[in-house]
Amino acid sequence: MEKNPWKTKSKRLIYSNPWIELEEHKVITPAGTDGIYGKVKFKNKAMAIVPVDKELNTWLVGQYRYAIDEYSWEIPEGGGPIGEALLDSAKRELKEETGLTAGKWTEIMRFHTSNSVTDEEGFAFLAEDLMEGETEFEDTEDIKVIKLPLKEAIQKVLDGGITDVISSAVLLKVGRILGI
Questions:
Q1: What is the mean pLDDT of residues 10-18?
Q2: b/e per residue 36-73 (b: at least 16 CB within 10 A)
Q3: Does the pLDDT value for residue 134 go beyond 90?
Q4: What average pLDDT does the segment 112-120 reach?
């Protein structure tokens, strides 16, 4: 473990909403100079799930992403409250976005997103032994759900049709695990 070369002199909350906080830190940089650092703190853990059935199909969710002003195809993903069991959060997200429940769950990855500006930590799961049901979208979600071969979803990553980095990394890892 490397020693942290940054020194924090002070922190100031700039903005807060139910999902994130933005802090400004006055710091001493690794070079010993004064500086500032902006940090986005997440109030949830990121959850990412790749559901795979016996025929090696998966489900993607599509939605318009306001922050990037683009439509995005992704694996089921969302936030789990800090302190809630990771698996409980993953199960809830899968059910909400796809209507699926799974009899077998495997945690396959821990990840950080944009770790130069945010403390967001996430966890990815492979969900198998699937049962279909009804979705439970949140009020802010306008989601389309498609079922397709896992191999095709992985090809969408390789062709640039899936640009969400969480979806890309997790789909490639699942493909490796399952030998696709």
A1: 97
A2: eeebbebebbbbbbbbbbeeebbbbbebeeeeeeeebb
A3: no
A4: 93
Whole-number Å distance between alpha carbons of 110 and 131: 26
DSSP string for 90-143: HHHHHHHHH--EEEEEEEEEEEESSTTTB--EEEEEEEEEEE-------TT---
For residue 138, pLDDT beyond 90: no
pLDDT tens, residue by residue, 54-105:
999 999 999 999 999 999 999 999 999 999 999 999 999 999 999 999 999 9
User: Could you say which DSSP state residue 27 is in?
Assistant: E
Phi then psi for 6, rounded to 5 degrees? -85, 145
State both tokens at 138: 């949140």
Closest-CA residue to 152 (of 129, 170, 127, 175)? 175
Look-up: residue for tokens 């979208």? 137
**Closest by Cα among 37, 45, 1, 39 to 19:** 45
Is the Cα dihedral 27, 68, 48, 79 positive or negative?
Answer: positive
Residue 30: how many CB atoms within 10 A of its CB? Answer: 11
Q: Quick one: which of 38, 37, 40, 39 has its CA closest to 20?
A: 40
